[in-house]
C-alpha cells in the first residue's frame, strides 16, 4: 500500500543501515495495522519523535509527509545570477541561544555540530546602522534605550508571576513602564527589539505606532518574557544570549535530514503524501490521504503547524473535543517574511544589520547584509524582513510590485546614490502555503498555561500532538519543535510498550481565577 519515494528523500545518496536496536523484536511484530505509530509531518518534531521511538526499540512507525523531502519549515532557496548563486534560508535561519561555556547546549546547535552544518555568530545588538526615509539617521541611543526597556519588561514579568497577577499584553507592559513609542524612531526601535530581535517570534505590536492605534496586541507579556528567558537567559536555564546564522550551502535543513539518514529506513517514510482525514477511536486510528489511501495504526502523532490545524485542512473524526479546539484556536499563528535581493555589487551598510524607520510602522524595517565578511562576502546579497499584517499584505501582491516598494525604501535610505535594480529577487509566502499557513506560533495574552497543556494533550490516548506550538517554554523555535518531538516519542513509546501508558492530561475547561461579577442583560 505504501509507496516510498526513496530517491527523492533527503538528497542523500544512501541511508546508513539502521543499527539493530537492542529490544526491538517484541514491539515490532506486524499486526494487521499498517504501523504501530503514524507520525504525521516530517519536520523537526516528526523526525525527532521518530528517532526517539527508534532509540526505544520501536521501529514500526511511518512518517507521512506531504512534501518531497524532510525538514518541514526548514527550507532553502538558491538565489543569484549564474556564477553567483547562493543557498539562502527562506524559513528558520538562526540557532537561537547557543551554549554558554560547557553549559546546556541548544539541541539544534548540537545537531549542527554533529553534521558539520556551518553557522556563524550574528551580532544582532551591536552591529547596526540606522536610517529613516531621508537617509542615514543616527538613533542608536534610542535603540539602546529600547533594549533596556525590554530587559525591564522581562524582569517585571517575573514579578507579575510571583505576585500571581494576571497576564497582560506587551503593549500594556510598554505603557505601564512609560515606554510607549512617541515617534517613528522609538517605534522602529521597539519593533526591532520586540518584534524582531529578542522575542523575534513576537509580531507587530501595531498599537505601538501612534498613528495606527486600532490593531490588536497579540503578545502576552508573561509568555514573551519566559520564552525569552528559557532560551537566552542562562540563569533561567537558557542556552546563551547569542544567535548564530546558518550559512551552510547544503541548507540549514541538513541538520535534520542528515540526522534522519542515520536511523530512518526507506519503508519508514512516505513522502508526497497529503493527509486529509484523521479518524480516531479507543481501538486505534485511521489516516486518509488525498488519493483515498488509508493507513491504520495504534497511535497517531500529528505535528502539523498550528496554522494548518486552525484553518481546518484536516478533518478529524469524530470532531475534536471543545477543549482541544479552544486551545488550537486561541494561540496565534504569526507570519514572518524574508525578502532577498541580489545586486551587482554592495552599496549598503558595512554593519551586519540596519533598522529603517518609515512613517508607517512595519514597512520594510529590518535589513540584514549577507554581503559581509562573516557571511557571503562578494555575494551582493541583502535581505529585508517584514512581519504580521504587512506580511499578509505583500503575500497578496505580485513579486514585481513588492520589489518596487522595497526599492522605494532602499532609494529613500540612500538618497545620494543611484541605486540600481536588483539582479535577483525572492520571497516565500508562508501564510498562503497550505502546508504551513504562517511561520510560527505566538502566545497572546488571553492564552493561558491551561490552554498550552490542552494544545499538547492527547485525545483518547490515541491522538497525539507535537510541534513548536505545543512547547510551553520554547514555542516558535526550532528547539521547541525538537523538545516536543522528543517528549512525544518518549510518551508514545510508553503506550506502545503497554502498562505505563497514561497519555497527556487535559483540562475540560480553562477557567478564570475569580468569577466575573454577574451582569444581567435586559433588552
Ligand atoms: C520564516 C521563518 C523563520 C523562522 N526563523 C526561525 C529561526 O531563525 N530560529 C528558530 O529556532 N526557528 C525559526 N522558525 C521556526 C521554526 O521553523 C519552527 O519552529 C520549526 O521548523 C517547526 O517544526 P515542526 O516540526 O513543529 O513543524 P513543521 O516544520 O511545520 O513540520 C510539519 C510538517 O507537516 C507537513 N504537513 C502539513 N500539512 C500536511 C498534510 N496535510 N499532510 C502531510 N503533511 C503535512 C509539512 O509539510 C511539514 O513538513 C522560523 C520559521 C519560519 C517560517
Ligand atoms: C496514494 O499515495 C500513497 C502515498 O503517497 C501511495 O503509496 C499510493 O500508491 C497512492 N495510491 C494511489 C491509488 O495512487
Ligand atoms: C536548497 O539547497 C540545495 C543545496 O544547495 C539545492 O540543491 C536546492 O536546489 C535548494 N532548494 C531550492 C528550492 O532552491
Ligand atoms: C564546566 O567547566 C568548569 C570549569 O571549566 C568545570 O569546573 C565544571 O566541572 C564543568 N562542568 C561540567 C558539567 O562539565
Ligand atoms: C546627501 O547629500 C546632501 C547634500 O549634499 C547632504 O546634506 C546629506 O548629508 C547627504 N545624505 C547622506 C545620507 O549622505
Ligand atoms: C526573566 O529573567 C529575569 C532575569 O534573570 C528575571 O528577573 C525575570 O523574573 C524572569 N522573568 C520571567 C517571566 O521568568
UniProtKB/TrEMBL annotation:
GO terms for molecular function: oxidoreductase activity. FAD binds at residues 65-66, 275. The keyword Flavoprotein applies. One of its GO terms (biological process) is polyamine catabolic process. Its cofactor is FAD. Keywords: FAD, Flavoprotein, Oxidoreductase, Signal. Residues 1-18 form the signal peptide. Pfam families: Amino_oxidase (PF01593). It is an enzyme of class 1 (oxidoreductase). Residues 44-492 form the Amine oxidase domain. It comes from the Eukaryota. The keyword Transmembrane helix does not apply. Its EC number is 1.4.3.-. Belongs to the flavin monoamine oxidase family. This is Amine oxidase. It comes from Suillus subaureus.
Amino acid at each position: 500500500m505504501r509507496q516510498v519515494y526513496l530517491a527523492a528523500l533527503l538528497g542523500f545518496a544512501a541511508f546508513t543501515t539502521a543499527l539493530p536496536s537492542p529490544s526491538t523484536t517484541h514491539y515490532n511484530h506486524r499486526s494487521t495495522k499498517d504501523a504501530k505509530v503514524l507520525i504525521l509531518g516530517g519536520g523537526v518534531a516528526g523526525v525527532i519523535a521518530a528517532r526517539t521511538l527508534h532509540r526505544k526499540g520501536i521501529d514500526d512507525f511511518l512518517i507521512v509527509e506531504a512534501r518531497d523531502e524532510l525538514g518541514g519549515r526548514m527550507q532553502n532557496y538558491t538565489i543569484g545570477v549564474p556564477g553567483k548563486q547562493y543557498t539562502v534560508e527562506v524559513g528558520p535561519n538562526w540557532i537561537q541561544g547557543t551554549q554558554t561555556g560547557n553549559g546546556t547546549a541548544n539541541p539544534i546547535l548540537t545537531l549542527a555540530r554533529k553534521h558539520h552544518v556551518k553557522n556563524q555568530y550574528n551580532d544582532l545588538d551591536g552591529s547596526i546602522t540606522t536610517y529613516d526615509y531621508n537617509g542615514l539617521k543616527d538613533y542608536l541611543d534610542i535603540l539602546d534605550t529600547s533594549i533596556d526597556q525590554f530587559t525591564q519588561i522581562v524582569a517585571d514579568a517575573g514579578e507579575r508571576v510571583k505576585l500571581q497577577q494576571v497576564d497582560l499584553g506587551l503593549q500594556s507592559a510598554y505603557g505601564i513602564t512609560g515606554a510607549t513609542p512617541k515617534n517613528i524612531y522609538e517605534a522602529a526601535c521597539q519593533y526591532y527589539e520586540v518584534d524582531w530581535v529578542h522575542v523575534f517570534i513576537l509580531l507587530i505590536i501595531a498599537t505601538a505606532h501612534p498613528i495606527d492605534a486600532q490593531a490588536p496586541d497579540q503578545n502576552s507579556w508573561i509568555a514573551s518574557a519566559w520564552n525569552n528567558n528559557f532560551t537566552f537567559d542562562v540563569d533561567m536555564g537558557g542556552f546563551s544570549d547569542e544567535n548564530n546564522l546558518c550559512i551552510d550551502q547544503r541548507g540549514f535543513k541538513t541538520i535534520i535530514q542528515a540526522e534522519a539518514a542515520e536511523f530512518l529506513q526507506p519503508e519508514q517514510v512516505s513522502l508526497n503524501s497529503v493527509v486529509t482525514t484523521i479518524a480516531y477511536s479507543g481501538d486505534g486510528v485511521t489516516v486518509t490521504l488525498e488519493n483515498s489511501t488509508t493507513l491504520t495504526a495504534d497511535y497517531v502523532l500529528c505535528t502539523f503547524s498550528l496554522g494548518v490545524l486552525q484553518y481546518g485542512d484536516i478533518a478529524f473524526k469524530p470532531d475534536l473535543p471543545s477543549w482541544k479546539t479552544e486551545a488550537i484556536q486561541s494561540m496565534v499563528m504569526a507570519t514572518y517574511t524574508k525578502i532577498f535581493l541580489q545586486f551587482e555589487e554592495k552599496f549598503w551598510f558595512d554593519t551586519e544589520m540596519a533598522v529603517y524607520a518609515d512613517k508607517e510602522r512595519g514597512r520594510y524595517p529590518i535589513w540584514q547584509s549577507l554581503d559581509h565578511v562573516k557571511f557571503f562576502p562578494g555575494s551582493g546579497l541583502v535581505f529585508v524582513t517584514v512581519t504580521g499584517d504587512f506580511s499578509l499584505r505583500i503575500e497578496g501582491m505580485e513579486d514585481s510590485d513588492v520589489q518596487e516598494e522595497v526599492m522605494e525604501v532602499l532609494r529613500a535610505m540612500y538618497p545620494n546614490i543611484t541605486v540600481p535594480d536588483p539582479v535577483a529577487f525572492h520571497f516565500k509566502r508562508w501564510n498562503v502555503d497550505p502546508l504551513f499557513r504562517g511561520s510560527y506560533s505566538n502566545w497572546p495574552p488571553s492564552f493561558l498555561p491551561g490552554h498550552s497543556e490542552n494544545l499538547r494533550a492527547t485525545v483518547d490516548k490515541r491522538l497525539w500532538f507535537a510541534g513548536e506550538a505545543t512547547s510551553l517554554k520554547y514555542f516558535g523555535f526550532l528547539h521547541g519543535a525538537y523538545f516536543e518531538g522528543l517528549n512525544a516519542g518518549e510518551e508514545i513509546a510508553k503506550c506502545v510498550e503497554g502498562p505505563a501508558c497514561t497519555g497527556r492530561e487535559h483540562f475540560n475547561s480553562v477557567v478564570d481565577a475569580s468569577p466575573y461579577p454577574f451582569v444581567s442583560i435586559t433588552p
